[in-house]
Each structure stands twice: as C-alpha cells, then as structure tokens.
Amino acid sequence: MSVLQMQRISICALKKDRKAILEKIQSMGVMEMNQIAEDEEGFEKMDTLNARQRFEKKAQLSDQALAVLETYAPEKHSMLSGLEGKKLVEQEQFDKAVAEKEAIVSKANLLISKNKEIAESKAGILKLENQIESLEPWISLDVPMNFEGTGKVSMLLGTMPAETTLESVYEQIAVNNPDIEAMDVKIISSDRDAAYLAVFCLRAEAAAVEEALRAGGFARPSQVTDKAPAKKKADLIAEIQKLNNEIEKTEEEIRSYADSREDLKLVGDYFRMRAQKYEVLGTLPQSQRTFVMSGYVAAKAVPAIEKAIGERYDCVLDVEDLKEDEEPPIILKNNAFSSSVEGVLESYGLPHKGEFDPTTIMSFFYVFFFGMMLSDAAYGAIIAIACFVVLKKFPRMSKGMHKSIKMFMFCGISTIVWGVLFGGYFGDVVDVVSRTFFGRTVTIKPLWFAPLNDPMRLLIYSMAFGLIHLFVGLGIKGYMLVKDGKILDFFCDVVLWYAFLIGLILMLLPTDIFASIAQTQIVFPPAVSMLAKGLAIVGALGLLLMSGRANKNPALRIALGAYDIYNITGWLSDVLSYSRLLALGLATGVIASVVNQMGSMFGKGIVGAILFVVVFIVGHTLNLAINLLGAYVHTNRLQFVEFFGKFYEGGGRPFEPFQSDTKYVDIKEETLS
C-alpha cells in the first residue's frame, strides 16, 4: 500500500562505454530517462534521426514479411493464444539470429517481393476476367471483332439501347437516310443494358449508315479483338490458368520460408530495440569524450545500478533526492492480492506526488462489492476456476492481463462466499431439478438469508456497507490532512462531517421511516438520543461557521458554510447509490430462477431433460455474461465516483522505463529482481 520512493540518478561516463552502458540500462529496465544537462556549455546532442528511422524501417520490414508468412503459412493458434504472452528465448539464440541479420533481412525482402508478384498476378487475372466479361455479349460472333469486311462490304459492330429490335434498327435507317437499301443487321445478343449488333452494308455507304445509327444511340465497342471472341476467350482463360499456376508456385515458395518465422521475429525485435536505443541516444548531452545520462529510478533499484554500472565502468554516479517541485513518475508497490486491482486504479489515474495510494483499501471493497453484486456460488466457482486455470496455463501473459485475470479470480472467490451466504447455486436450480425430475423439493438453505425473500433487508445492508465505504474514504482524507500538518483542515473538513453525519444517522435509526424499511424498531436510551442531537447540532454549526474559513467576509463565510451543509444531499445520493448492490444481486438471482423455470416447462421425460440442459446452458451463460459485465462496471463506478470522490485526485504519470520493449519475444537474461 505504497508508492515507491523515486530518486534521480545521473551517470557521467566515457564515450567509449556509451553503447555498453546504454544496452545494460535498457536490459535492466529500471530507469526512466529525463535529461537535465541539456543546456550545459560544452555538451551537445547527437543527431540520431536517420539511424533510428533506418532501424525502424527494418523492423517494419520484418513485420511485413511475418504478415506475408501469416497469410500463406499461418501459425496454428489456440482460442486463448492471445493470453500466451511473448515467447522467452535464450540469449544465445537471439545472438545467433542477430549475427545472421543481413541474410534474414534479405529473406524478408524476398518474401515481400514474392507477395508483390502474387498481387500483380492477381491484378492481371482481374484484368483478364474483365476482358472476358466484355467479350461475353459477342461470344457467338464467328469473325474477329476488328474484321472490317470484304472489298465491297463493310461490317460495323456496336451497341444500341437494350430495347432495340431489328425492326427499330431498319426504321432508324429509313428515317435518317432513306437512300440506303443494301444493308443487313444481325443482333448478336442483348441484355438489360444494351443490344449488341453486327451491321453489314456497302463500304461506300458505311459512314452514312453509321451516322444514321448513331442518331439512335449506336456506339462502337470500347475493346475489339483480332480473333473471334470465342477463340479470344479461350486464350484469356489459358492466360488466367497460367497466372494461377504461377501464383501457386510463388505461394509454395513463400511457404518454404515458414521455418524462418522465428528468425524474422528475433531480428525484428533486435532492430526495434536498436531504434529505441538510438532514440534515447539522441537525447543524451555529449561532449568530445564523455556523455551524461540522467533519469528517475526507484530508490530500491539504485544499488543494482551502482553494481551493474558503477563497478564495471569508469564513470561517476550521482544519486539525489527529488526537488520539492519535481513531479516524478509513479510506481505502485502492493501485495499479491491488492496489486491485482492496480489496473483499475490506473484507469482512473495514479496518485500524484505525496498522495495516498488507495489500492490496498480499494482492493478489499472492490472484491467485496463485486461478489455481493454477482452473488451466485456456482457462477463464482466458474469464474474462479477458469481464471486459476488460465493463470497456471499461461504464466507468460502480459503483466496487465495477469493482474486482471487474478483480480477476477479473487472476485470469483468472493462471489462463491456471497453465493453461499445467500443460497444461490445457479439460482434455485437444486429446487427446480429435484421438484421437476425427482418429485420432491430439495433446498439448500442460505447461510445468512435469501435476498429474493427479504429484499429490504439486503437494501439496508447495502446502504450500511456503502456508508462504511464512504466513511473510510473520508477517514483517508483526514489521514492525508494530518500527514501534511493541516490540523485545522482535518478538524473542519473531516471531524465536523463525521459528527454531523453520525448524529443524523443516530437520529434516523429510531424513526418510523427506518422501522418500516428495516422491518424492525430500534429504540435508543435518552442519553444516546441526546448525544445524536448534540453531534448533529455541533457538526452543523461547525460546518456553517468553518467551511468558508478562507474568506474574511462574515456573510460570504456563512453562505459558504450553508452551501457546504447543503452537500448532505450529496452524501444521501452517494449512500443511495449503493442500492445497486441490491439491484444487481437480485437481477442475478431472478434471471437465473427464470431460466430454471423455463427449462422445467418441458416436463421430466428424456426430451424434457435434454431441453432443460439446453435451456440451462444457454440461459445461464447469457446471465453470467450480462451480470459479470454489470458487476464489473458498477463496482468500478462505486470506487471512482463515491469512494474516490471523498479524498482522491489522481493525476500521477506512470513510470516508463528505458527497456527492451520487444514485440515478439522476451530475451532470457539477468534482470533486476
């Protein structure tokens, strides 16, 4: 339950050791670069843009080659392959691939060129298919399309509107040029777009015939062939088959490089690491013989850097505490249970410098409320077991994914506990199955009470748990104020609110309104009632007079105090917000019971049992999915809005160390424990 103490470390070393020191710092992954000697006289930065772009280009080349292999020789992946994480490789294997990087880059270029050949061949096939499509209307023509006729007779090929008939063509000629008599028209084919004609006429009258036809929409074909269309189509099909054979041959050549997949990944990550190193190198202030490196490290990592760098190289290490106005990156340090919800906190915002880390306290409430919302022991067992199996089967999954899966495992365990307390096992499936198929009702009694039978009781407990949650948040605010030495603020903003709220709660409990909701009457001794009124009055007067203490104007001060007291409505709204614990808990149980009742409607025969199983699986799968999502969303909401709203600001930035940020593999080597 803490934020690791950060320090600034500066390393001044000889240029000859620059490469080795940078690579060592990168492999350790414990230092975030933040240079402070940028404006020092005698130091200048090195222009590494071209080198970095060259390495990035080669890394992208490797990625493209891998994409080509994945297209034609895909790796076999399981449904959960996304959880596997990056493969761990030995340093020796990585070094071997790096030694052969030029040959591997050549393979990458070859794969990309082969893929380009396939793309060009496919484009050629598409072009040929379009030509075949354009030939289809002329396929019954038994002369080449560029045939112009004999010495005295001319052939005109063209298209006219789809509704064109032989009679309309002759009529068109007769109207536009009645002197033409020696002419023959043949409709080769027609479709919904056009009619395809072959017109024969005297060569001397060809121009006049064409002009007359154009008045009716006649147009020459855009493409003509030097062979009969049927023969040309056969030639085009042969060309397509030839290109398909070439594509198959090229694809087979690409598949033959499948064994190079691992080398491509290793070399791609090598160039990616080199690009990262040169990006940092471009930020380092350097003189003629030395360079300076500075950045943030966790205080516990300083000894490891001193041992790895200070004892091995001729350099000077300077470690200093951060300045008062310096805002360092944030590293959270929590136990195995609480660290699982760090992702939830990070999605809201990390604590800023000096702010309290609420992860541990939040983790308890998070798991507590999640289980209460889902509240079915069978659902919880499914979640917990599934998450446990995934954690064991995929130990190398990403850090963030590992935390999330572990968090859901703990939430599943909490759900089991609440399910046992409320008597929820796939809703009331034990009751329904025993009654439907065995003729007698067997009920597993809840260890505490059944919410469906006593919802108001659950409502009271939901708001009580919410009040505890909010009071803890207010208490954390008080702790932070005392820690900062703001005793007056602690008294005015925390103690007075506690007095006011506790007084009002004690006054509410004996009332008829609360008795009607809780189904029980609470009676306090007169002394407790007087104490409640006294706390409420003292708290209200204190808030009225002290909430606006920053203002010297008495009227404005009182007005601000009155406004602060009005914020009691905000507290009421926050407490009522915890009724979602009741709503989601009931929703899970009600929907589960409805699913069971639907399944039992088919009777107790064999068919009824089969249909019951089908309805059971489908219904409970959907119910689990919907309410799992609902529990996750609303549990986050209770933390972000109600709990954090009482004390937490956030706004810290995450620690982003200079490290080997690879894409495909992790390299097995000595790292900081």
Topology, element by element:
Blueprint: E1 2-3, E2 6-14, H1 18-28, E3 31-33, H2 49-72, E4 87-90, H3 91-99, H4 101-135, E5 153-161, H5 166-176, E6 183-190, E7 194-202, H6 206-214, H7 229-255, H8 261-281, E8 290-298, H9 302-310, E9 315-321, E10 332-333, H10 342-348, H11 359-374, H12 377-393, H13 399-422, H14 429-437, H15 455-483, H16 487-508, H17 512-518, H18 526-546, H19 554-566, H20 568-577, H21 580-600, H22 606-643, E11 665-668
Parallel strand pairs: 4-11
Antiparallel strand pairs: 1-10, 2-8, 2-9, 3-8, 5-7, 6-7
Helix pairs in contact: 2-4, 2-8, 4-7, 11-13, 11-21, 11-22, 12-13, 14-21, 15-16, 15-20, 15-21, 16-18, 18-19, 21-22
Using brief descriptors, characterize the structure shown.
673 residues; alpha+beta; Alpha-Beta Plaits; 4-stranded antiparallel β-sheet; 3-stranded antiparallel β-sheet; extended
Folded structure, characterized:
The structure is a single chain. With 673 residues, the chain is an alpha+beta fold. It has helices at residues 18-28, 49-72, 91-99, 101-135, 166-176, 206-214, 229-255, 261-281, 302-310, 342-348, 359-374, 377-393, 399-422, 429-437, 455-483, 487-508, 512-518, 526-546, 554-566, 568-577, 580-600, 606-643; strands at 2-3, 6-14, 31-33, 87-90, 153-161, 183-190, 194-202, 290-298, 315-321, 332-333, 665-668. Among the domains are: 46-132 and 231-282, no CATH class; 146-220, Alpha-Beta Plaits (2-Layer Sandwich), CATH 3.30.70. The strands form four sheets. Strands 3-8-2-9 form a four-stranded antiparallel beta sheet, covered by helices on one side. It has a three-stranded antiparallel beta sheet with strand order 5-7-6. A two-stranded antiparallel ribbon has the order 1-10. Helix 15 (455-483) packs antiparallel against helix 21 (580-600). The protein is extended. The two termini are 19 Å apart. The model has no long low-confidence stretch (mean pLDDT 93). It comes from Clostridium scindens (strain JCM 10418 / VPI 12708).
